[in-house]
Structure formats: C-alpha cells, structure tokens
C-alpha cells in the first residue's frame, strides 16, 4: 500500500512537526510528509523540514486580502504536492469556511486540552482556573466549528496543585508528542472511519483498536 501523503501547516517553532517528521522517517511508518507550509517566514519549524529534506514553502497570510484568498493559496500548494491529509501543528490561523469544506474529514489538529473542555486560547490557564484535576491533549478532525470537530484520540495528564500555565503546558506538550504520531499512523493505515450521529458530530471509529486504545495516560 502506498504511503499516505501528508502536509503540515505551521506558524512557529514546530515541536509537533518535529515529532511527525521523526515518525515519518521510520521505513515502516505508513505516512510521508510531502510538504510543510508556514504562514510566517521566521517560523522555527522550517529548519526542521530542511533538516529532514522535506519540501517547505512560506505563504505569508499578510499578502492576501482576506482569509479565503490565503486559504485557497495554501490549498493550491498542498494539492500541487499531492497531499491527501493536512496536519495542523501550531498553525495560528483560523480558516475561512472554504478550507474545511474543501478538505472535509482530511484535516487533523492537536489541541492542548481534553475537548470539548477548554476550547480556544490560553487553555492551560482555563484548566487551572476551573480547578480541573486532569487535562491533556486531543487530536481531532477540523470543521468550521472551532475546536469542535470529531475527536480521534486523547492523552490525559494530571493537573498538579502547584501548576502554572507554563508547567502544565510543558506536561501536555510531552503528551502531544506521543499522541499525534499515533493518530497519524492510524490514518496512514486506513483504520479511521466516521460514523454519523444524527444531530451530533460524527463519531470516529478506529478499526482494530480497542475502545480504550485511543486514550493515552501520561503521568
């Protein structure tokens, strides 16, 4: 079976990009990264792509009159590279409705909370302020509902009584680095299916994985 071609969108340091590049470098990994796209020329993650010999391009969002025009330019670059699945890795842009419609069920994101709890920004502080005992990371499909798409997999970490937003973020980031390559592998192995749920987001089913297999516990 041919390896699935993924494209990764970044805006910053690219720590999750690095974990995906490392995973895809293994000969038996069923996904290859065909293109990295950054909306910022100074993004540190571009150096990771260069080091792994993966094509990368910069498409500055400020060069476009509106979100959709930028999204279409990104989409054209992904299509030209033969990308089949898009992975967001610290991509700090909100899409116009066009992009998730064009790439429906083919965009993955990793969010630093246990969705549906704590959507949006500053989620580690949200968890601390709410008195949460557990937080974590979620890989989900992207829809036009911000942080509201079907959940693929989650990793849970404890929230310590003395945590700050920074210490909790560091613990969650380690969990992200384990979770994202695992979820990407499932897509490459063509294990992921969507089951419709009337009136609710589709439910993700991962063939051959026990129900608890989509949850990582990271103490």
Describe this entry's structure for a reader.
By secondary structure, the chain is of the alpha/beta class. The chain has two domains: 1-103, Formyl transferase, N-terminal domain (Rossmann fold); 110-219, Formyl transferase, N-terminal domain (Rossmann fold, 3-Layer(aba) Sandwich), CATH 3.40.50. It is 31% helix and 27% strand. The chain is built from six helices and ten strands. The strands form two sheets. The chain has an eight-stranded mixed beta sheet, sandwiched between helices. A two-stranded antiparallel ribbon has the order 8-9. Helix 1 links the parallel strand 1 (4-10) and strand 2 (31-38). Helix 1 packs parallel to helix 6 (165-188) and helix 5 (123-129) packs across helix 6. The longest helix has 24 residues, at 165-188. It is globular. The model has no long low-confidence stretch (mean pLDDT 97). It is an enzyme of class 2 (transferase). Pfam families: Formyl_trans_N (PF00551). Its EC number is 2.1.2.2.
**Beta-strand percent range:** 25-35%
Q: What strand line-up does the widest sheet have?
A: 3-2-1-4-5-6-7-10
Q: What is the CATH H-level superfamily of the largest domain? A: Formyl transferase, N-terminal domain
What would the CATH topology of the largest domain be?
Answer: Rossmann fold
Average pLDDT score: 97
Radius of gyration: 17 Å
Corresponding CATH architecture of the largest domain? 3-Layer(aba) Sandwich
- End-to-end span in angstroms? 36 Å
Structural class: alpha/beta
Task: Provide the CATH top-level class of the largest domain.
Answer: Alpha Beta
Number of domains: 2
Give the number of DSSP strands: 10
């Amino acid at each position: 079976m041919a390896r699935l071609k993924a494209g990764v969108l970044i805006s910053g340091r690219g720590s999750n990009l690095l974990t995906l590049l490392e995973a895809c470098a293994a000969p038996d990994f069923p996904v290859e990264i065909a293109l990295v796209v950054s909306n910022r020329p100074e993004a540190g993650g571009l150096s990771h792509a260069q080091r792994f010999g993966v094509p990368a391009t910069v498409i500055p969002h400020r060069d476009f009159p509106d979100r959709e025009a930028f999204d279409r330019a990104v989409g054209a670059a992904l299509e030209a590279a033969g990308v089949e699945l898009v992975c967001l890795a610290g991509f700090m842009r909100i899409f116009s409705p066009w992009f998730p419609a064009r790439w429906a069920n083919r965009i993955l994101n990793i969010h630093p909370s246990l969705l549906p709890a704590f959507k949006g920004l500053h989620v580690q502080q949200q968890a601390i302020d709410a008195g949460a005992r557990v937080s974590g990371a979620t890989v989900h499909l992207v829809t036009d509902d911000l942080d509201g798409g079907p959940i693929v997999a989650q990793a849970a970490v404890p929230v310590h009584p003395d945590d700050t937003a920074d210490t909790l973020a560091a613990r969650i980031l380690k969990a992200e680095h384990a979770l994202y390559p695992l979820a990407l592998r499932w897509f490459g192995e063509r294990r992921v299916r969507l089951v419709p749920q009337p009136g609710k987001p589709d439910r993700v089913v991962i063939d051959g994985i026990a129900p608890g297999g989509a949850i990582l516990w990271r103490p």
